[in-house]
Amino acid sequence: MKTISVVLPCLNEAQNLPLLIPQIIKSIPKKYNYEIILVNDGSSDNTTTMIELLARKNKNIKGIIFYKRFGHQPALKAGIENTTGSAVITMDSDFQHPPSLIPKLIKLWEKGYDLVSAQKTEDHSSGKLMRFGRKIGYFIWQKVSGGLLIPGVSDFRIMSREISLYLKENPEKEIFIRGLTQLVAKNPTSIKYKVGKRKFGKTSYTLSLATNLFINGFISFSTFPLRSAWVLGIIFFLIIGIYLIFDIVVTLLKGKRLIEGYITIVLLSVVLNGILLFYLGIIGEYLRVIFKEAKNRPPHLIVKKINC
């Protein structure tokens, strides 16, 4: 009998877990064995105690306890590294990823899709400004990644054993799982869903985390910012060259310049310096990732495993 693995990163989800886990178990077809891996990412509530309680009652429920908070992606990676199933489902533990979608994900996987991603159609879990920012971020991601990063797709998915093994063996520290799964998938598809309502607690998805996730996704799957620098340089070189030629011609014919004084020099200096600083910032982000990868530090510290 095949096994379905379910990985859930947890951050202050002590009240949600005892309600969510039974729904997940109920959603997995009886013809499959299952294992549910709960990864506590440095929660400040009783999440660890709740994981231990659930694991004592059901040996198919496993726990991984981090020493401190290391982030959503490292928590996902740690959970995936401890899976044994023929397919792996990843989802959040706050009810925003509805367990009722699990049977549909499994059916599509059974049809031969090695990656089935859940794509948001409606999301009222955050404010209008955050939703607007996400739309812009997804749009940019899709353009710079050549369609690899799909709008509305987060970390609610089912993946084949082959893809989970690829993630296990991937040595990246600044890992971006939603991109890597799409990158390696041979036969991917998606299914649309409405984001569920969080039952207890507050979201940990702050503006700073969203910004950091956007930057990681941006630079992990595109060299477009780096390659666009020389294109922009040529464009500005041509514009400035044409302007100078035109300015010289007008000066010779009419005896005066297009713009008097130092305004031209000041404007050009401001624009060009602004562009230089912008691209230095982009290079800095790429160097930040290279620095972290070169250090090769462990992405997390596990202090306890339960039923693993």
Automatic annotation (TrEMBL):
Residues 5-162 form the Glycosyltransferase 2-like domain. It holds the Pfam family Glycos_transf_2. The keyword Disulfide bond does not apply. The chain crosses the membrane at residues 204-224, 230-250, 262-282. InterPro entries: Glyco_trans_2-like (IPR001173), Glycosyltransferase_2 (IPR050256), Nucleotide-diphossugar_trans (IPR029044). This is Glycosyltransferase 2-like domain-containing protein. It comes from the Bacteria. PANTHER family: GLYCOSYLTRANSFERASE CSBB-RELATED, UNDECAPRENYL-PHOSPHATE 4-DEOXY-4-FORMAMIDO-L-ARABINOSE TRANSFERASE-RELATED. It comes from Candidatus Woesebacteria bacterium RIFCSPLOWO2_01_FULL_39_10b. One of its GO terms (cellular component) is plasma membrane. Keywords: Membrane, Transmembrane, Transmembrane helix. CDD domains: DPM1_like_bac (cd04187).
